[in-house]
Request: fold
Amino acid sequence: MIPLAQLRDEYLTHGEDPLALGFISIFLGGSVIHQQDIKHIMRRGSDWDGVGIVRTKQDIVALIRDRRASLRALLGIIREDSTTTSWEDALVEEADWQVLRFSGWTCTGSKRTMRIWSQEHLEAVASCNETCYLGVLSHKVWHNIRLQHESFGPGILVSPPTAVTDRVSIMTDFNILQIPYGIKQGTVTGVWPGVVCDIILTSWCMFEHFPGLVDFQKRLLWSKWLLVSNLKRPEVLAPFLCHWYTFSQGYKDNLVMDAYRLLEGNELKAWSTMDSSSNSSSNMHEPLVTSPITIVDEYSGTQRGIGPKFVSYHRLEISPAMNPGRLVTWKETGVTHGSESKWQSGQDFVIHRSVPVRSAFSSNSDGEEAMIEHRQIGVRHRVYIKTADTFLDELDAMKQLECFVPKRNLQNIIAVDRGSKRILYEYFDGKSLLDIRTQRRPENCGNRGISEMTYRWLLSIESQRAHDMMLAYRLSYLPNNIYKRLDHEPKLHRYFFHRLHNDTRLKEFYQNGTPTFLDPQGRATGSLKELLALPVYVNNKTSKCLREHLDTAESLLHPQAEHFSRLPFAYGLGDGHGGNVMVADEETTMPVLRFVDYEVAGYNPILLELAKPIYHDCFYNALWGDLLADDLRHPTKAHIPKVRWHVGQGGVYIEYDLHMSFLDKALATTKFEYLVCPILQHIHQQYGPESLLQESETALGHALLCCAMLSRDFSHRADLFFLNLAIGVDLVTDMRGTIDKIFGLQNWPAKGSLNRV
Reply:
């Protein structure tokens, strides 16, 4: 083991007094403290994770506002990952955070991180015998936490951040977390310490104001952990520590023996008689974990893990964020891209080479990868060239998107060729999210299946998308009475009402009116008109004919429909499904992504904003089933949809089975937990009566039917036509029940109650 004095000298510099900065104790945890050689650590670079304890939250704020330079000096940081401005905008004492994460890099390139917590709050959560929330104010964003169980292996806690500013978010942590997970004999509860508490429990003391203080703080956390778990032996709990399986046996033994030393005496007895009134502490939140899902092996169906679990979205705080008077004239004051003014004509640049870029998930435009050179200044750029009739809509949207969507996640315009209807974007070396999901499907990953890192990466992407979209909705939210003052129709209606009206999209796909759909016996179904008039039977349940469903959808999704006038609008991408999300193909818990295709971006009804991301992403293996199998009547691999149908004079009879893989369910649940359900709950809370929520869900169900039937031409794939028809009819008939059945989601906003089910 590395001597304690050597670790202290490396982590803290001698020129600064921790006590003068307000610290009463400092811990060093993480992977570095149980290494054998500090030179080995320094050679390869390292992350040094610590926790600093001050007296109060006010002391944390004062330290960052007034003494940040001294804090950098104490930790040896020469390059901080934050700025004065970014902290100043986020340091609101009343905000729901209790821990501040401060970090940067030293001259040797190693990372120094300190989570600063108050003794006041540490004692408050230790005096409560249930899970307590810890909000961590941070510039770094993470979307899930790895959990480890001694018997059942790894799990994932999905915990999306809440944006405070465009650079700072509040991350979800906890003191001690209890998670039930299913096994054959019943349900058992695992008990994990949160990230901050885990660091403290496995740490070495770097500084304490007086002897015994660090022992007291650790004793509080060990006692709370034992009490919540209803266990009396530290060695039973210790394997729940995050890095337990990387510790040497000697370090494990020392941790357990130290816990027994700290707990020696009557502490456990005293805690067991604690006053139950402490449960009403103001630091308590609703239970943190909902929608438990058990990891199963993708091939054998056996359990191999404990997650992911989804942290509840506590509340959705939305309020009007813009001056209504500016909304009508924003085009005059919008952002103007300097690059567009310099490279506004095709005469200003020359294309040296171009390669077509194609994806199965984008059909509204043509794209090319190219190298261009500016004629006058000789600068070369690698670009993506997009050619589309709607390029003016995309340019128009770009002026406003930067106000609401993080700029790092938007494309950067290099040049515009108006004559050829082309926009030249800076090239992003990545793939569409749906292309990546196709490559990472279980059946494409061989016998090893999908790795834990792949799970975490894809869950992080989905959580990041929900985070960015929710931020955009919060910043741009418009109550219904303000939206009525705008003088233009949302462009997003072109994907719904305008496709429905006069059967425009059906005629586009099936021009001759007689598609080549055949039933299993080979009899032709007749004309499309006759097919639409037949009643539909899905999995032995009777439904109306498709003609009635489409007519109802056209009425509900009309731009002037009454329920739209009573619902909020917000600025969104409109077409923000996974085919329009580019992702750098590097598996990390901090994914790099770009949103693309902005032609229908704008102020849209939030309900319509949700429809395409729900259907295209969650029902991906139905909408693009042709990428998975040649015939869905006889699938040969697991997790591929199965459909049978028969068309006769009495109706259209369809039976289907949409068996989702664990990954598909986890990604869909992330979207519903952190985007769809919070918005529906907000509508229920703010816009009542209860009937409006029901109308909203009915309209959303019919929008999903449009996505199912009018997104792709199925004229040569009868199996896809009838499969998506069946799913669309089920969603129209019972949206909640269908999604519950397919994905196991039960966390909808309750009708008649503001509480989550």
